[in-house]
Amino acid sequence: MPSRPRLSPLSAALATTFAALLASPALTQAQTLNELYESARGFDATYQGARAQYDASIARAAQAKAGILPAVGLTAGVTRSDLDIETLTGTGRGTSTPRDFTTQNVGINATQPLYRPANWATYEQGKRQADIAQAVLTIAEQDLIVRVSQAYFDVLASQDSLALVRAQKVAVAEQLASAKRNFEVGTSTITDSREAQARYDLVIAQEIAAENDLQVKKVVLDQLVGRPGSVPVPLTVPVVLPTATPADINAWVSQADEVHPAIKQARLGLDVAGLEVDKAKAGHKPTLDANLGYNITRNPTGTSTSTVGTRVNATTVGVTFNMPLFAGFATENRIKETLALEDQSRSVLEGTRRSVAQATRAAYLGLVSGAGQVKALEAAEASSQSALDANRLGYQVGVRINIDVLNSQSQLYQTKRDLAQARYNVLLGNLKLRQANGTLTTDDMNAINATLASNGSVPAVPPAIGPDRGTTAPAVPVTPPSIPVVPPVPVQPFNPPAPTMPTAPVPPVILNPPVR
């Protein structure tokens, strides 16, 4: 069998590609995960809406305190009265006397509730409404952390995918050029060239799809953080992935039941519903208020019964008692309504607990599974590289064909892409586990941020390089590795014994059936 020219290894193509990128002066200042998160806090419409809702809820909760505080009011007025006094009996009967006078009054009055059970229940509801608003804001902050991290790692994954596709294109182009050279010198058939050309065309299509996916992911990240042209800092090498601590799924679920903001919100909602029942029951109870006032009334020209100008200074102190007796069964029906709503809130709390527990278990299992996939894919990457090297060596010595090398290349690059995506999934899964658990904070994001590269600049996405369709692919100028000499395999002479023909079996005896 004719010998085939040796090909440059795939790792050499990768090294050449990235070496050219690192030597390029076109470096872009990148942003860390923390920087983009801070930008999103000031720009994201969803988070800004949640923040405004929090401020509104706090102000609404503060209004409930007014029902237990005194109410003070200042009043003032001027009245002009025109009277026509007609005498009906006695002297002057039948005559009328006009009388005009002015009344001026000013006063200040205060009312202090002494016993109003409904107002106190409303005040307690207000305090719990403020706690509910804080829980809702915490959920929004955790959601923002996850959304920013998701968009961040999506861009990094798309960049890695595009870089790997372009590096694969270089390697396939090299294989295509080698197949064409071998065909020209007559050491291979046209099939090798056509197989390499088909694989090259397929990689071109994958490159176009990867470029489009990267642009879409960048648009999503830019819209989220409000910063056009944002460039995430890649992960440091080697990648250090966080582990789930504690390594006990029940511990995560128990912690979620205690601190998860959604469970806190549901629990506070049950308290609010119970206080609403107390407010409804207060409809049967009396109320007692204290009143204090100081009022001045002036009549400069007298009154309807006197022509002498007067001024009255009045100070009043008292209490007002009110006892409801019958309200048309409205209070009884209101109590029934609030009791039913309290049962509903209790069911919502139980449903929230179950949902949080399920989400926490799923997130924990997903993180553990993702960590296992990373280890398996790392082993698969090493195995795929060894398989590619073996197939390339076999192709050079004539025991493998071109399609074997191409398949090994595709398998290696697909494994690399899957490994990169699995690493990002583990980093994001760590945040999602803490979100499902309800303990996600910016400190957890800082731990993820520590896994990024320390320098603030990253190279741009690898440019599209390689031959055009239908032209001879230029070989990458790299030094091929030395190929070890394969010793000849001793072949035993093949002298099989002559086959023995089997003896035909004795034909069966066929009996004639009796004739009736």
TrEMBL record:
The UniProt record lists the keyword Repeat: no
Presence of the UniProt keyword Signal in the record: yes
Localization, UniProt: Cell outer membrane
Keywords: Cell outer membrane, Membrane, Signal, Transmembrane, Transmembrane beta strand, Transport
Family matches, as Pfam families: OEP
GO cellular component: cell outer membrane; efflux pump complex
SUPFAM superfamilies, sorted: Outer membrane efflux proteins (OEP)
Leader sequence segment: 1-28
UniProt xrefs under Gene3D superfamilies: Outer membrane efflux proteins (OEP) (1.20.1600.10)
Principal location listed in the UniProt entry: membrane
GO molecular function per UniProt: efflux transmembrane transporter activity; porin activity
InterPro entries (UniProt xref): OMP_efflux, T1SS_OMP_TolC, TolC-like
Family listed: Belongs to the outer membrane factor (OMF) (TC 1.B.17) family.
Name used for this protein in its record: Channel protein TolC
